[in-house]
Amino acid sequence: MTSSLKILELKRLEELLSSIEKPGRYINHEIGIKSKSFKFLIENPPAVLFALVFPDIYEVGMSNLGMQILYKIVNDYPEFSCERVFSPWVDFEQELRRKNIKLFSLENRIFLDCFDVIGFSAAHEMLYTNILNILDLSGIALSFRDRKDIFPLVCAGGSAVVNPWPLSKFMDFMLVGDGEQVLPQILMIIKDYKDGCKKSSFASDYAGDHAKKQSILKRLQKIDGVFVPDFFKVYFSGSGTIKDIEPFEKVRKAVIKDLDSSGIVSDPVIPNIQVVHDRFNVEIMRGCSRGCRFCQAGFIYRPVRQRNVDFLIMQTIEGLKNTGYDEVSFTSLSSADYKKINDLIYSVTNSPDFERVSVSLPSLRIDSFNIRLAELIQSGRKTGLTFAPETGSQRLRNIIKKDLNQDDLLKCMKTAIAKGWDKIKLYFMIGLPCEESSDIDSIITLIKSIISEAGKLMTRKNFSRFQLNISINSFIPKPFTPFQWAGQEQTESLEKKLHYISKNLPKKFVKLNWTGPDKSKVECALSRGDLLVSDVIERAWKRGARFDNWTDFFDYNLWHTCFKDSGLDIDFYSSREINEDEILPWDIIDIGIKKEFLLKEYKASKIAAEIKASQEKKIYRKIEMIKIAGQKAAKSKAAE
Amino acid sequence: MYAETETLRFKFVKKNEFKYLSHLDLIRIISRAAARAGLKLAYSKGFNPKPRMSFSNPTPLGVESLAEYCDMELQGGINAEEFMGLMNKALPEYLYIVKAKIIGENVLKLISEISLVLYQFNLRLQEIKNKSYLKIKEKTSTEDKNLSDKNLDLSGVKETLKKDFENEVSKIYEIFNSIYNFSFSIEEDNVIVLKIFGYAKIFKEKNNLIFKFNNFLSFFNDFTKKYQISIELFKKVEMYLYLNSADKLVTPLDLV
Predict the structure, then answer these.
(1) Which of A17, A244, A299, A474 has its CA 20 to 30 A from that of A290?
(2) In chain A, whose CA is at the least distance from the CA of B34?
(3) CA A166, CA A185: separation in Å to the nearest integer?
(4) What value of ipTM does the predicted structure carry?
C-alpha cells in the first residue's frame, strides 16, 4: 500500500539496462504521462494506486488504444493514480531474475506488489502465460487463494476474458465489457475501503484479512461486468462437461451507452521509441452490425455505437496538434460502416492546420465505394490495399455470413488494380464449418484470376512489380459466436490443406504466409476453456511458456503435454463438436446476445451449406438475370 | 508550397534516461516536437516526402551527450531564440536545445568528411586501502601510509595511469588508430578525467578507422578493473569538424 511504497532506484535500473536490447522500452518521461508524481503519492496516502498491465512488450502495448483510454480515465481522478506496466522481453526478464529484482511500473518504478490494484488487459488468449509470468516476477502468488493480503487485488479485462474461466484461478475479479465507466467505480469502492469511511458496508476492523477482502469483492460484484471467481462453484459431469454452475446468476457485460460521454484521448502518451502502430489512434465506432458468424468481436462488442462526427473532427484535429503525429488511424471493426466516414476524412485531411496528414483505415470492407475511399486517403503514393474475402467461394461465404459477393469482389480488385495499386493483401481462413475440398480449390482459382486480371490491366513493367500478399489463418470457433458449438478441424488436415494451397499457387506474384494450425488449436482450447484449463496454463508457464503469440517461442508439444498432465484432452476443448444443450462455461456471462439467437444462426449456416456449388452458379445466374431485368425496367422507366 | 525556407543549425543535449534512445528515436521525437511547436518543416519532393533534417553522427546507445547537432529546414522566417523557445517547450524533459543559429547555404554539412568526437570519462579511485592502488602509490611518490581521501597524490596516479593507458592502447590496432588524442586531468576529489578525441569519420587519405565507442568501452572497462577504478560517468562532450582552409578544429556552430 501507499504507506510503504518501494521503488527501484534509477542507478539499479541502469545496471539492468546495460546489457539488454532496446533499453528504450523500460524508460519513462514520454510526452503525455498522466500518473501522479511520487511526491504526491507519499503525501496523499489514501490515493488508490492502479497498475495497468499490458502483458506484451512495450511496442505492442503502446499501440493498444484501450490502454490509452483507461490510463487517461483513471488518472483524470485526483484520488487515483494509474501507472503502466508491460511484459519485459526475455532478456530483461533474465536480468531481473538473475539480480533478484521484482518487476516495477514504468512511470515511478514502483514495485508491483506495492499497488492496490493490478489490472491486466488481456487482448487475446496467447497472452495468458505472460500474465502469470508478470505476477511471478512481481513476487505475487499466482492463485488468488494463496494471496493472503488484501492488496494488491488482481484483476483482468479485455476480449480474452469474455470467457472468464481460463484465468479464473489467478484473478480476484474480472471485468467483462467496456471498462470506461466501471473501472472508476471499482477504484472508488477500494478508496472507500482504504479511507476507512462508509465502513459499515465492509467487514469490521476485527475481521481477518480474508473476510475483509471478501467484503470488498462482494461490493465489487454488484457492479456491471464484474465476475468474482471465488463466488462461483462449477460441477462437472463424468464426461468432463459442465453439470452446473452455482449460483447460476449471469454476470451482465458492462456497456457504455454513449461513446461521446467521454471524449477521445486527444493527448495520448507518445512513445519515445517506435511502436507497432506509431500514429494517432481514434476510435470512431464500437461494435459491428454485420454479424459474420466466425467473428467474435462482431458479437461481443455489440451494440453498435458511433461517435458524433463533429466532435470527432474537432478532437482529431486537436489531437494531431497535441501529438505532432502526421498520421491518424480511424479505428473500429468496420470503419467504412461509419455513417459519416467521408465527411470525417475530408475535414481532417483538408484542415488548414496541417500541410500533410495521412489517414489509415484498418479493417476496410471491400466494395466499389471503398475503393473511392481508399483513393481519398492514399492520394499520391499507393501503398497497399488489404481485403478480407475470408474464403474463395460464394457458397462458403454464405455459410459464414460474410456479406460479400464474388462478382463485386472481382470487380473491386479490377478497379483497384486499374487505379494503380500494385500491392494487395488478402486474408483467408481455412477449416471453416462445412468446408469442402472445392472451397480450397476456389481460393486458388480466385487468386489466379486476380493475377490474370492484373496482367490484362497493367503495363508489362508495372505487372512485374505486382504482388499479392496472401495470409491464411485457421478458423477458431470462439465463445459467443454462432460457431461456438462447432469443432475445430484437426491440425493434420489443416496442414494438408495449407500445403495443397501453397503447392498450387503460382510462385510468381504471390507471397504466402500462414499461422500454424497447432497454434490456432491451442488458442481455440484456451478460448473455450473451463475452470480446469487454469491448471494447464499454470503448468505451461512453469515449463517456460511465454510470448506464445511469437512463433519463435510457441511450442505445441509443451501445451499438449500440459493438457495431458492436467488430466485433460486438448481435443475436448478444440476439435470436439459441442452439444447444443450443454452448459457452456461462458454461459455465466450475459454478453447481451441470447444463446437461442446464436443457435438459430448456427442452424442457418447449416441450411446455407446445403446449397451445393453447382446449384450456386444457377442461383447466381438467376440473381444476375433479375438484376439485369430490373435495370432494364428502371431504364425504360427513366426513358419514359 | 514553394515559399522561402530557412535552415537552422542547433545543438542539443540528451541526458539521463534519454541516453537509452537510439538515433532514429531522436529523429522521430524531434520532428514530432517541431510539429507540436507549430513549426512548418520543409519537405523533400517526390512520392514519399520526408522532412528536411540532417543530424550529426549517432551517439552510441547508453551514452549521454552534450553535443548533438541537427540542421533543420523550415518554411518561412523565424529567429533562433524564438525557435529554441518553441522547441524546448515541445521537447520531452531530458532532450533540449542549448544553442541555435540560422545558417547560410554554403556551410559545411554536419556529416562532413572529417570530424572528431570528444568523449569524457570521470574516473573515481574506489578505495584508499586498495592494494593495487597502493602499489601505484609506492612507485610514484611519498611513503606516507596515513592517506585519506582528501590528500591523495592524484598527480602521481594520473601519470601512471596515463603511461599505462598509452601503452595498452598502442597494443590494439583498431583502438589506437581511431584515437586522435587523449588527456588525463584531475578534477575535484578523487576524480580523474580522461578526455578522448576519437575519429567519428574516416580520414580517407590516412585510412583511419571509425571510433567505435562500444569497443573502446569494453577495452577500457578491463583497464579500469586492473586499477580498481570505477567509471563514474561518461559522456559525449563535443564534436568538431576539421576546417581544411584554416587547418583547425571547429564546432559545427563555430562555422556559422
Answers:
(1) A474
(2) A324
(3) 25
(4) 0.86
